[in-house]
Each structure stands twice: as structure tokens, then as C-alpha cells.
Design brief:
246 residues, globular, Rossmann fold, alpha/beta
Length: 246
């Protein structure tokens, strides 16, 4: 007598933004600085973003303005660069920066991995630098910006399928379909308003060191907020407003 095969149990998913959430800076910023240090980008390219960096440091400007100028610098100068040079710079960044991580999210990653969660990274940084950083942390799948190369293996400066990588919620749903994952019991961790769509579809949303716009969204939606400051971690429950210090 034949029996129907039992349905394969779907794996729970945990999705993380990377920059400012696990890594205590931006991988793209470090990559641009490395490319300048190696002479692959001209020293003058700092002029595009330096005043915005200073404005961010002195709190007279926003981080969003600063990171946009970093993106502009990268996009402008990566065109025509051999992909091998980008890869080598990315490898160097990973070797130097891999240990510079937040304690809370690093511990959460380990706990979720041990709990058999599928770990998914979704970031706007280049995949070339993301892949190495995330691999050492046990991520199962990494989504980042893929930059086109031509027949001579030179970067064109264009992003492949940019409209897809910009929609983090769509990426998560697509990953669930392709990898037999479920959003039931899912966790999402982000730090800016760009992560709101991704956080909205998870069972538990964790806003880690959120900027003002994400903090307001957390308040309105009852999401958890976690602040890691120096050697103290503060956790606010979105459900009951309770706060505890880890």
C-alpha cells in the first residue's frame, strides 16, 4: 500500500541587515577607504564625501547624506576597475574588520544558528565585501549589490537588478520560496527606516540602535528596541514596554 510522502517541514528564517546592525560601521565605507589606500581610487575622491562625514561626526548633518556620498564615490570610481582589484580590497577589509561586531547581534546570530534558523543577510553593501564577512558568521544566504563586469572583467559601475535589491521584503519572500522557509516564528533585525518593509513581515522585529525614523516606527508598531552602548545592552519590549539591562 502506497502512502503520500509527508510534507517537508519548513525552516524558520532570521534576516539581518549588516551595516550598523552586526558590523559596527559600514562595510562600504571601509571598502572605499581601502580602495583609496591601495591607489585603486584617486586620493581626491575623498573630497566627494569628507565634508559630509565631518557633518555627521559633529551632528550637523545626517548619516543618510554621508552614506549617499560614499555610494556616489564608489559608483563613480569603480567603473573601469578590474573586478580582481575590488575582490582583493574586499578580502583585505574582511581580514581587518571581521572582529568589529556588536555583542548583542553576534550572540543572537549564534543562538539562532544553534536553534536551526536559516540565517539570511540583506544589505545594500557590495556583495563582494558582504560575502566574506557573512560567511565567517554562518549565514546561509547573502543578498547584496552585484556590480556588472564586461568581457574584460572590468566593472561597469552598474548594479545588476538594482530594483530587486532595493526591496528587502521582496528579497525575504523570494528567499523563503526558494529555500523552503517559513515566516512563522521569523525574526528580522535592522537599524534604519530602510529596513521597515523587512521588519514588517517578520513575527518578531528587533530595531537595533535605531535611527529616529525607525525608533518612531518601532513605537507605532510595537516592535522591540535594543540599544548597545559601551558595555551595556538595553532591551525594550514592544509588547509591554518593559526595559531590562543585559
Amino acid at each position: 500500500m502506497s502512502t503520500e510522502p509527508s510534507e517537508i517541514k519548513k525552516q524558520k528564517v532570521a534576516v539581518f541587515d549588516i551595516d550598523g546592525t552586526i558590523f559596527r560601521s559600514s562595510l562600504l565605507i571601509k571598502l572605499v577607504e581601502e580602495l583609496i589606500a591601495r591607489g585603486d581610487f584617486p586620493e581626491s575622491s575623498r573630497e566627494v564625501y569628507q565634508k559630509y562625514e565631518n557633518a555627521w561626526v559633529t551632528r550637523s548633518g545626517t548619516y543618510e547624506e554621508y552614506i549617499q556620498k560614499i555610494i556616489d564615490t564608489f559608483t563613480q570610481h569603480v567603473a573601469g576597475l578590474p573586478y580582481q582589484k575590488l575582490y582583493e580590497a574586499a578580502q583585505s577589509v574582511n581580514e581587518k574588520q571581521n572582529a568589529i561586531r556588536y555583542r548583542y547581534t553576534s550572540a543572537l546570530l549564534k543562538k539562532l544558528k544553534e536553534g536551526n534558523y536559516f540565517l539570511l543577510a540583506v544589505s545594500q553593501s557590495p556583495w563582494a565585501v558582504l560575502e566574506g564577512f557573512c560567511k565567517t558568521l554562518g549565514f546561509d544566504k547573502v543578498y547584496g549589490r552585484f556590480y556588472e563586469v564586461d568581457e574584460q572583467e572590468l566593472l561597469t559601475g552598474k548594479v545588476r537588478s538594482e530594483e530587486l535589491i532595493s526591496d528587502k521584503a521582496a528579497i525575504v519572500r523570494r528567499a523563503c520560496e526558494k529555500n523552503n522557509l517559513t515566516l512563522e516564528g521569523s525574526i528580522a533585525v535592522g537599524d534604519t527606516e530602510g529596513d521597515i518593509p523587512m521588519l514588517s513581515i517578520a513575527d518578531r522585529a528587533i530595531c537595533f540602535n535605531p535611527n529616529a525614523k525607525l525608533a518612531e516606527a518601532a513605537r507605532m508598531n510595537g516592535w522591540d528596541i535594543v540599544i548597545e552602548r559601551k558595555d551595556v545592552i538595553y532591551e525594550w519590549s514592544g509588547k509591554d514596554g518593559a526595559m531590562r539591562i543585559v
